[in-house]
């Protein structure tokens, strides 16, 4: 089972992230890729939903924040696209399966393949070895990082978007479904950057006001030289502390860098911020990880 050794636990506590190579088998990776291929092949994207996903602050506010499609995606399976893949009429300029940035945010709840991986015995064992008492799954995403157009993800802390009181209760689980290399946009981390709180928060506006979200605080100008590239092989799992600073560069290679990622929250003694864009719903309360 996927229990962490004392030295791995210590490394995670010091760095704020930890790589576990070979967490998933090749067969498990293929099963998720085949399933997502089927979901994309069947996707029906209404033209008004053809929003482009961006992580740059202005575009983020404009494209995502003003869009109910994003704000109401927490309990659904929805599609988000790269920049420049639609013409002005909303028609695809590249094949749909090559245009998609990510699918979110409730694959873990609605799809049997993704649910079984998320709640697999080895993920549960990993959470137990981290000391999580009542972990719940708050969101999941399938990230494509398409060849040549897979966009840059700017330096950020996950807790900026998934804020809790106290801090330190959110954990990202990032699984490489293809090799992640420096060329195709692997993750980069600032080791040890998870210990000084959150510098910026994305908050939901009151219902009916535009834009739908805004930012409190600002992202510091992180020193580029502090980032360490973290290439991993297909099947690797990367544990990501909610406050560690990380980013990924644009994919300029010929190969995609697909990943499945989900976030856990220790629910015991934790308040999920009512200002977070993502809120549990009556239809989908955050499901407990332990089954």
From TrEMBL:
<keyword id="KW-0479">Metal-binding</keyword>
<comment type="similarity">
    <text>Belongs to the PhyH family. PHYHD1 subfamily.</text>
</comment>
<keyword id="KW-0408">Iron</keyword>
<dbReference type="InterPro" id="IPR008775">
    <property type="entry name" value="Phytyl_CoA_dOase-like"/>
</dbReference>
<protein>
    <recommendedName>
        <fullName>Phytanoyl-CoA dioxygenase domain-containing protein 1</fullName>
    </recommendedName>
</protein>
<comment type="function">
    <text>2-oxoglutarate(2OG)-dependent dioxygenase that catalyzes the conversion of 2-oxoglutarate to succinate and CO(2) in an iron-dependent manner. However, does not couple 2OG turnover to the hydroxylation of acyl-coenzyme A derivatives, implying that it is not directly involved in phytanoyl coenzyme-A metabolism. Does not show detectable activity towards fatty acid CoA thioesters.</text>
</comment>
<keyword id="KW-0560">Oxidoreductase</keyword>
<keyword id="KW-0223">Dioxygenase</keyword>
<dbReference type="GO" id="GO:0046872">
    <property type="term" value="F:metal ion binding"/>
</dbReference>
<dbReference type="Pfam" id="PF05721">
    <property type="entry name" value="PhyH"/>
</dbReference>
<dbReference type="GO" id="GO:0051213">
    <property type="term" value="F:dioxygenase activity"/>
</dbReference>
């Amino acid at each position: 089972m996927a229990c962490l050794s004392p030295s791995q636990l210590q490394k995670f506590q010091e760095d704020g992230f930890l790589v576990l190579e070979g967490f998933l088998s090749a067969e498990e990776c293929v099963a998720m890729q085949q399933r997502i291929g089927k979901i994309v092949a069947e996707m029906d994207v209404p033209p008004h939903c053809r929003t482009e996903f961006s992580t740059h602050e202005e575009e983020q506010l404009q494209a995502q924040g003003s869009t109910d499609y994003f704000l109401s995606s927490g309990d659904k399976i929805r599609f988000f696209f790269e920049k420049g893949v639609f013409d002005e009429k909303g028609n695809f300029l590249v094949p749909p399966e090559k245009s998609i940035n990510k699918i979110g945010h409730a694959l873990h709840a609605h799809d049997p393949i993704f649910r079984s991986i998320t709640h697999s015995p080895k993920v549960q064992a990993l959470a137990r070895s981290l000391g999580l008492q009542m972990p719940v799954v708050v969101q999941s995403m399938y990230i494509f990082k398409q060849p040549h157009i897979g966009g840059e993800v700017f330096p950020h802390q996950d807790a900026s978007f998934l804020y809790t009181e106290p801090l330190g209760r959110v954990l990202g689980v990032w699984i490489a479904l293809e090799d992640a290399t420096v060329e195709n946009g692997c993750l980069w981390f600032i080791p040890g950057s998870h210990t000084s709180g959150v510098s910026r928060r994305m908050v939901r506006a009151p219902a009916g006001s535009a834009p739908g979200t805004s930012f409190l605080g600002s992202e510091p100008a992180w020193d580029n030289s502090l980032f360490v590239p973290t290439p991993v092989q297909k099947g690797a799992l990367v544990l990501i502390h909610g406050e560690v600073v990380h980013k990924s560069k644009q994919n300029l290679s010929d190969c995609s860098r697909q990943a499945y990622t989900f976030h856990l929250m220790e629910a015991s003694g934790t308040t999920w911020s009512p200002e977070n864009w993502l809120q549990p719903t009556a239809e989908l309360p955050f499901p407990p990880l332990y089954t």
